[in-house]
Design a protein that fits this description.
Blueprint: H1 2-18, E1 33-36, E2 48-54, E3 63-68, E4 71-76, E5 80-86, E6 90-98, E7 110-115, E8 121-128, E9 134-139, H2 141-148, E10 152-154, E11 181-186, H3 187-190, H4 203-220, E12 226-233, H5 240-260, E13 268-272, H6 289-294, E14 300-307
Parallel strand pairs: 2-8, 5-10, 12-13
Antiparallel strand pairs: 1-10, 2-5, 3-4, 3-6, 6-7, 8-9, 11-14, 12-14
Length: about 325
Amino acid sequence: MKNSLQRAARYVCCLGFVVLSLGAHAQSITAPLGETFKVPNLLVKHQSRLVLYRLATDKQPGAVSLYIDGAYLASLQRGAYTELCLPPSKIEIGVRMTENGRSVRDAFDVLNTLSLDPGKEVFVQVMEELNGRALMVTVRPEKALPELVKTREQRHTLSRVPKAQACQDAPKSAKATAPFTSTTLNADALFPFGKSSIDTIAPKGRRILDHLIDRIKSEFGAGKTVTIHITGHADSFGSDHGNLRLSKERAAAIKSYFVAGGLLPDRITTDGRGDKELVVKSCAKALTAANVACNKPNRRVVVDVGRKQATQTND
């Protein structure tokens, strides 16, 4: 009986990759991907959110099939994501590569245990190894979100995870308790090399900033009680004066973008540190492609967001 159930589960996985899901999420087989990823609101404390995604640059043509505690969740194509909310707990995530026309392996390519904390999000990237098997890694939000904004929701399969719940937003009052948060943005994802004008921010960078604005509004609000400090950092190419100017101009451009997105200008301060606070200090000085790549972590913009109590004034 157990072997029959396992064979049925594998059949469901393969079938899920080529058939339609029913109901409101149904998609045509020629358009299996839905909307682009959007940063979600804060969760209630009795739920955890799990987001799994696959980059469009993956080379394996098949899908990565995902299982939660042995139950089928989805089959991710390249450039797709899926998410679900679960009660806080420890879960097992199993993944395997699948490809139409090929038999499905009995065992998972990898099986990992993951802890889901109350009110928190966990981001997991799935990918393929050189041997054609699937691999998964947990990713910090500051790395995952810029990657996720380039993915679309996998909509053509039907999850069979019994513990999955409809995600519930935290009540609005939760904004008042939002902690201080610091987000480091890769400057290369925002600006061309050596540029700092708001007009030069790339479409990918604009999506990243739009999602950050939405997150700030969701967690801290957009009024007088939110405080935002933006700090630009440069690499060590060029002069000290030029690097300082570039870092300040980039911070100012991000502020202008935030203001255009609905945040108050008098709640945002900016600064530039030039190349005085390098993250990677081992890069050579010559302006070569290898050294530019080595310095990538040094070219960054840090956005610190906090909450300040509103003061009362007498008329």
